[in-house]
What does this fold into?
Amino acid sequence: MATFERKNRSVQLQEDAIRYFLIVAATISILTTFGILFSILFEAIEFFKLKSFWYFFTGTEWSPGTSDSKFGALPIFSGTLLITAIAITVALPIGLGSAIFMSEYASDKQRTTLKPILEILAGIPTVVYGFFAAITVAPFIVEVCKSFGVVASFNSALASGIVMGIMIIPVISSLSDDVIRAVPDSLRKGALALGMTKSETIKDVVLPSALPGIISATLLGVSKALGETMIVVMAAGLRPNLSWNILEDMTTVTVRIVDSLVGDQAFNSPATLSAFALGLALFVLTLILNIVSVRMIKKFKIKYKMSSL
Amino acid sequence: MAKTKKNIFYDPSLSKRHFKDKIFKYATVASLAISLIFLVIFLSDMIIKGSSAIKQSYIQVEVSYSQKAQKSYRKAVERKYVNLISRAELRQVPMQMKNNASLMGTKELKWLIADDQVDMYMKGYYYKLKSKDLKTLEAMVANGRIEQKFNTVFFTHGDSKSPEFAGILSAMIGTIFTILVAMAVAFPLGVATAIYLEEFSKESWWSEFLEVNINNLAAIPSILFGLLGLAIFINLFGLPRSSALVGGLTLALMTLPIIVVSSRAALRSVPSTIRQAGYGLGLTKVQVVKDHVLPLAFPGIMTGTILGLAQAMGETAPLIIVGMIAFIPDSPTTIMDAATVMPAQIFTWAGMPERAYIEKTAAGILTLLTILISLNAFAIYLRKRFEVKW
It folds into this structure.
């Protein structure tokens, strides 16, 4: 019978130490998530002790500065959703179109040069986009509207929405591109063999197959737009405004968070705490979007038996 | 002859379908073109706005180091020039006299930084000058006593309330401190997490939970990390507000998922034959990972880390929440000092009412973009240079 040399004790100890260090490190990421959740949750509970929970979600008047301050966040939510909608209206067709071109029409060489260029858009800091929206795009929109005899605000929702849309083009195009390329070639060949043109193949066969992935990419884009801060802080307004007119100034959840935390108010005043209530709403919404998005892509992966995406 | 022979496969709608096919292709090309055109417009807009900041106006005047000037810096030059010269520059005159007593009573012809309105006038932008000052100015231009020189102030000074004296140095140093803190925390933690998930963890609810959690962390809006920093690092731990330490820790938590995801991809790309060979030679798991897998995955890990670093460098929102937009004229010397970072400085300048700050903002943006693009290029170089094809 062979005898095995026992492992050196000190080596064994060292190995265990390394193993435990790795486990602790991995746990930090979980602590962070719960840290975010609880730090926001506790302050938000403080806020709802002072102010009505119901009014927060249904009230239409937001006046934190006055003595009988009111916190009805409906106009803030509406502004956020409207600007997000503008951003997606810009980003989805452009992003999806670019993805289709890169995955279906472009040669490999074109693709390897175009994709990094498109990703530069994702690498530009958001404060830079904000400056561009406030200094160049917003005055341009005002001028154009003026020539049509329409009055537009310098803080219009349209300006920040468009620039935000351009920012999330790469988010949508990059994931969509991967997903479209993952659709098996046999589907395309089958469709072409039946006499469909290339565009018909893409529209009727490839895109429907890739739909879960495209929806997932869009949801990621939406969640990014909802949480985007600098563009709206610099280019959108501060005034909560319940309106459908995209040329008016509006405010968003993130703008109000920044605005209420940058001032010098006491930390436990309702005005400051309202930031955490808004933050909680933002956290829950983006978390749901993300979970749905991950589910969608998982479905797609299982359908085409893909291991990496 | 050909006309009479009917092709039974001929589809009359075919030309229409081919036309639609073409339109569809052009639509996809157009959508890509729109993003590229935007990129070009955007970059050229920044360069046009920022290029004028390369030069700055200097004005030649006689500075008299007198008793009067010691008391009031406005007396250091002839009265008609006072409004044309940067106030921050004049304020230094009494200081210079204090440091160098032999200056007292002497006079010197010097090039001083001009006021921002003079600078705007010289560059042909909108300016606000009193008619009296404008006359003096025009006479000086005619005499060649105003010159535009390379703007060294921008890179050698911190922020200032006078736009002509404002520079990006303190913000750059703040950025370096903040990023160093962030990387010192996020790099070891991120790589360790990746190694654990990729090499050590077994398939269990715990590892799956970790994985879902990291994916979610990557999708949380950055501003919420700022709320975390405010509530935990500042209010709970009592770390100094606006400091590079708090900013760095906040950014570290944000960059963590990026580093984890890219490190895992790098570890996964190391073929299992390497590990098998190691085990075959009797190495322990830790030895295999430490001496064989990790070195091979390292270029990939570095690439991902640099990309994460570049992203952290451009991040503004969470840092504003933890107070890193304070007015910081002097560079911070430790990580506990109040500091500001480059994107936050850009944000502050963008909100200033003076016209002269617009070119400063654009110049700051160009500086930041240059750094980010070089970092990205370096990451791509690393990947190309050390990438191993298995």
Q: What stands out?
A: Chain A touches chain B through 88 residues (CB under 8 Å). The two ends of chain A are 49 Å apart (CA to CA). Residues 9-50 of chain A form one domain.
